[in-house]
Amino acid sequence: MHLHYLSRHADGPPHGTDLSPAHLGKLRLRGLTARDRRLHTAHLLRLSAEDRRARFHSAISDKAVIAYSRGLDWNHAWVFGAFVDGTLRGVGELVPLEGTDEGELSISVEKPYQHMGIGKMLTLALILAARRTGIGTVRMLYVHGNQRMRALARDLGAKTIAAPGVLEGVVTVAEKPRRPA
């Protein structure tokens, strides 16, 4: 996978930094736990107003972001983080829906790190987690204007359903292959 991200220098506009194999050491994906709550909250607080709306389907205050992160059920949700140069820049969450074999997937990536494949990498990690844990259906809710989530849903072969105010991409997860007896 070829990755690219934007960086800023004090004396000029954003410019691209290649994260090709020689630079991939700067990018790390790992599971997050309740111990990472501060990192999770800080990441969500760094999202622009537009990106918060895309992630939470409405405008959301700092106070609401903090409450969301505190209220996340870390014992049941699958949460992955993408770290660039040691800082959490993208988060993927898969929250199982109680009493079903379904889960809701959400992705957030900070503006300067979008369009470099982090969202897709987080999504694929969560689809694999769903497969390993028996979640057969993954739901991705996103606002109509969120082209990035629409593209992820399309790439996963999601069936798109229009719901009031949002679109829902529904992905059927292939069963984990069984080992021969």
| SS element count, helices | 5
Q: Estimate nothing, just give the exact number of structural domains.
A: 1
Q: What series of H and E elements makes up the topology?
A: EEEHHHEEEHEHEE
Could you state the CATH homologous superfamily? Answer: Gcn5-related N-acetyltransferase (GNAT)
| Mean pLDDT across every amino acid position | 86
Spans where pLDDT lies below 50 across 5 or more residues: 1-23
CATH uppermost class: Alpha Beta
Structural class determined from secondary elements: alpha+beta
Helix content: 25-40%
Give the overall silhouette: globular
From the 3D structure, determine the CATH topology: Aminopeptidase
Main β-sheet description = 7 strands, mixed
The percentage of residues in β strands lies in: 25-35%
* Rg of Cα set: 17 Å
- What's the total count of β strands? 9
Rounded to the nearest angstrom, the distance between the terminal CA atoms is 35 Å
Instruction: Assign the CATH architecture.
Output: 3-Layer(aba) Sandwich
Oligomeric form: single chain
Strand order of the largest sheet: 3-4-5-6-7-9-8
